[in-house]
Write a structure and sequence with these properties.
heterodimer; A: mainly alpha; Arc Repressor Mutant, subunit A; B: mainly alpha; 2 domains; two-stranded antiparallel ribbon; 11 helices
Chain lengths: 105, 306
């Protein structure tokens, strides 16, 4: 049975960093990529709120703009933070899967 | 321009200026692409409006300059404190509207049930909270004045308000003494009216004086922290008095009266149906003041890190 609101519990900052880990992207490309990898439709307000916070924290960096579009890239601090977070999440995930008797593919 | 694109433009303009300078163009480009891809403009508008409120509260993407955060803290403190000028008169209206314990209905004295007794107890506690609100607000005012001492030259408005309030209070006190003798009762009435009018005018103009002082002066971090903590305490007290007022009005409606269809609340409270509006006022002002205090606390923390 699907739990309502389960997908909404995903952290937008984590999704943005994961998407940028594949290479620099501008806002619309980020929204499309996140929808593809996580099935979460981020609104423009939510996306730029997250980007501003990540930029303030030095985890992403804005590149020179192309017309009205401005691409963003993940910084080395952002990559390190993402790696740390994903390792912690994957440790919990593997324990959870083992306890459920599921063998990861 | 369609009404939908007007809505989107409105929601983009609802962001603070610092955010618009930095992000408006790119967000506009993303919004255009989303609309072209068939996303609902209403969904986009709602998302932008919600995010703009969050941005204003959190100050996301704001410049790191210390002056910016000092002024932001002072502005939000103004919001947190100015609610006081409405909450206090509302609390006085609430207390004046309360009758004596128990009320006659026709020739029968209504026996207070558990609900009625609770309502009266809550009303008594609320008057203590009003006194506490007064004390904390005065403390905040003193901290504010000492912080701005020597920086802000008292303006004409400040002097007028200060003298108006003093003369108003003096005339009102004089009226109390003059009213005791029959020969001067008419004069006392005139004094009381003039005194109270002056005091109310000064009360209404004080927020303008405070905002003028905060706009032209700059508080030190130590003073800012003190005023921020006073505003936080005030917000907790606003929350408490709101709970007491709402709780007492709800309990009053649960008090039974001998005649079916009659309400103890309308018999007992001078406000009757206006009680609902009073409760809405208390809740609204508490939320507004809470937002002001929370923004000022966050901004003050930001000053310490810059």
């Amino acid at each position: 049975m699907a739990v309502k609101g389960w997908q909404r519990a995903q952290d937008p900052a984590l999704l943005v960093l994961t998407s940028l880990a594949a290479g620099p992207k501008h806002g619309y490309a980020l929204i499309g990529d996140i929808e593809e990898i996580a099935g979460v439709a981020l609104g423009p307000g939510t996306l730029y709120g997250v980007l501003a916070r990540l930029e303030d924290a030095g985890l992403v960096e804005a590149l020179p703009s192309e017309d009205r579009r401005r691409p963003y890239k993940i910084t080395s601090a952002g990559s390190a933070a993402l790696r740390e977070r994903l390792l912690a999440t994957s440790a919990v995930a593997s324990i959870g899967l083992r306890r459920l008797g599921v063998t990861p593919a | 321009m369609t009404s939908e694109s007007k809505l989107i433009t409105f929601s983009l303009n609802s962001y603070p200026s610092w955010w618009r300078e930095r992000y408006q163009d790119e967000v506009g480009a993303v919004v255009d692409c989303l609309v072209e891809a068939g996303r609902s403009p209403l969904w986009i508008t709602a998302n932008l409006l919600r995010a703009s409120i969050t941005t204003r509260i959190r100050g996301t993407g704001a410049p790191a300059a210390r002056e910016f955060w000092v002024h932001r803290t002072q502005k939000s403190l103004m919001v947190a404190f100015l609610a006081w000028f409405t909450i206090v008169p509302l609390a006085i209206v609430f207390m004046l509207s309360i009758g004596e314990n128990g009320v006659s209905h026709g020739n029968t004295l209504v026996q207070l049930s558990h609900a009625g007794t609770t309502a009266h107890n809550l009303q008594s506690v609320s008057s203590i909270v009003v006194v506490l609100i007064f004390v904390i607000a005065l403390r905040g005012w003193r901290q504010l004045r000492s912080g701005l001492e020597g920086q802000v030259i008292p303006t004409k408005l400040f002097r007028v308000v200060n003298r108006g309030a003093m003369v108003g209070i003096t005339l009102t006190i004089a009226a109390l003494f003059l009213g005791e003798h029959n020969s001067t009762s008419m004069f006392a009435e005139v004094c009381a009216y003039i005194g109270l009018s002056l005091f109310v005018c000064a009360w209404l103009l004080t927020p303008a004086v405070i905002s003028q002082m905060l706009r032209h002066g700059e508080l030190s971090v130590t003073n800012l922290r003190k005023v921020v903590s006073s505003s936080t305490v005030l917000v907790w007290l606003y929350g408490l008095i709101t709970l007491l007022v709402v709780g007492s009005e709800v309990a009053l409606t649960a008090q039974p009266v001998p005649t079916s269809g009659a309400s103890y609340l309308s018999l007992h409270s001078g406000l009757g149906g206006w009680s609902l509006l009073l409760c809405v006022g208390f809740v609204g002002l508490t939320i507004l003041s809470g937002i002001g205090a929370s923004v000022s606390r966050r901004s003050c923390e930001q000053i310490l890190t810059t």
